[in-house]
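Before relying on records like the one below, remember that each one covers exactly one chain. Contacts with other chains, cofactors or solvent are not represented anywhere in the record.
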Amino acid sequence: MAKKTVIKSPVSKPTRKIPELARIILFVRAGGHCEFDGCNKYLIEHHLTFTEGNFAQFAHIVAFSKDGPRGKEVRPTNINDISNLMALCPECHKLIDDNTESFTRQTLEGYKKAHEERIQHVTGLGPDQKTSLLLVTSKIGDHTVTVPYDQMLQAITPRYPISKAGLPIDLTQLSTNSEVFITAACDTIREQLQGFLGAGGEVKRSHHISLFALAPIPVLAYLGSQLSNKVPLGLYQRHRDTEDWTWKTTDEQVKYLFQQRRKGKSARDVALLLSLSGTINDEVLSSEITKDFTIYELTLADLVPSPTFLRTKQDLEEFKNQYQLAIATIMHNHPGIREINLFPAVPAPIAVLCGREILPKVHPALRVYDADKRKGGFIYQLTINN
């Protein structure tokens, strides 16, 4: 009996199985993080238990099946090609497949391209982009604020942390209503910074600090005074509109105005108002600020003071320049002045700069006040550089 000749079809049937090499290349390009825009979840560690494992899903942009999500788009020659695949966390995978009108092929390809270009850029950086994370948190009113690690990573790009831990200084266990809060918070900051900045500390290896801090203004000013200006410092702010810590990019630049608001009788009694996050009226100043005091003000030139005015690194750098000029002007106008009474209505990064830019043995001491809503005005809290 003659053997039947079997003729194989020249058309190969696609398989759902993604080749191992394609999976590896995609995972490397994604940097082990979810490629959905804004997610960036770490895919090889469980987000709660931190157990290591592969928690990624490899999603088709144009579905494997023509009846699947975005399946009726012009189909790639190879449906399992890397260009048609995204590494996603399970939640984002379900989201894009259940909402195809919002997450079109063009949208997802844009997410993939931006994510993979960022990963390639960051992983290609040299050692001079290292930084040490410094996180300082305190209760703000009755609320405890946290800073997600992925938001810190996003904010410091193109820098990268040399350790995941960095130095977290947790002041949330201290009651902000306590009379000894300021003293206890400053003691904690000083003690914990010693190892971080010391000879065997992390900063000696990174030569750079990235600071994320939310705490009462006087505490932040003290924190700044403890951070040497010999070590470069990156400051970050939580933005209320986007609820993240990444500086904005804009061509509009904030302009500052420094002026003398009132001339007093005494040559050595001076107050400096920083009316930036809000307007400071004479009525809310401490009773210590008598008519003998000369009052200066650093405020916004073209904007009404508001908590959301600070949006870019350039605006922060310009404040530093104007603040230094204000201190120099005060010293010139008041020879021999020993202290400046500071009344700040400012965002957190500016509060840090207020303390950091005061040089020991060069500048007058800084007597820092803080607004107390319960008492209807500013209350003296601490002195820096005394």
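The chain has three domains: 20-123, 128-236, 256-384.
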